[in-house]
Amino acid sequence: MYENFEINTIDLNKKYHTVWDFGCSYTNYRWLTWSDMITLNGQAQTVNKSSYPGSGIKHVYNQLRHVVHNHEFTSDDLVLVNLPSLTRWDILTAYPEATD
Q: Is the pTM of this model over 0.90?
């Protein structure tokens, strides 16, 4: 179902159909992040950000699991994952916008 690949086989000059990113504030924040820098030059038709500041590893895992379950990845997709520190906890709140 999935092919094994190494990071050096990712072609950052390729025009990807969809780029997916998963992570914490290192991946999605008010200023540019490494994920933004990869997609800035129009290397993707669509960018789906599933990253949120303050996210812990459980949130990243659940977001990734949800997309894998509901989307068929192809060789024209690029999936970027930044795992936060294992010491970061996910806490559910009634006001998700409070994390901004």
A: no
